[in-house]
Write a structure and sequence with these properties.
- There is one protein chain.
- By secondary structure, the protein is an alpha+beta fold.
- It is 36% helix and 20% strand.
- It has helices at 66-80, 99-102, 110-113, 124-136, 138-144, 146-163, and strands at residues 3-8, 12-13, 31-32, 53-54, 59-64, 85-89, 92-96, 120-122, 167-170.
- A four-stranded antiparallel beta sheet has the order 5-1-9-8. Strands 2-4-3 form a three-stranded antiparallel beta sheet, with no helix packed on it. Strands 6-7 form a two-stranded antiparallel ribbon.
- The longest helix has 18 residues, at 146-163.
- The model has no long low-confidence stretch (mean pLDDT 96).
Length: 171
Amino acid sequence: MGLDITAYSKLVEAPDADRDSDGELVDYDNHTTFYSNEDFPGRTEGLTEGMAYRTDGECSGLSTGYGTYSAWREDLAKLAGYPAEMREQYGSQVESHCVSCWGGGEGPFAEQINFSDCEGTIGPVVSAKLAKDYAEFAERAEAVGGYFWEKYQEWRVAFDLAADNGAVVFH
């Protein structure tokens, strides 16, 4: 089991999308709804809660393991220059560059670093901010190279797509 990410662009509200007797979308190949994770308010800004959307635009996906994604966020926080702080993990103290974001800190990539590692949606407004962060830090990320640069480019594509009236879905 792992974390799957789907990025959409050019979403169009579809209030008349057909639903079955349970309220589920009938044409789920061309329509979707988005889950707003209440633990991260504001992340779905630009989307209407409960609305069905037509998915005519581009779509991109990526997959990773939960542990790998946690390590990715740590590396992203380090790249952004967040200081290392101590936190508890499984009964011991460990250093993490993510702590300030988890505490509500603002800055580059903060909305992704302080977000669910299993489910939720980042809407077009926050995606546009993250796309800008990815563009601004691309040169530094490329200098890191390797797996980090490879994943960085995938995430950049996801947020670039979603910035165009789309969404990035963690599922």
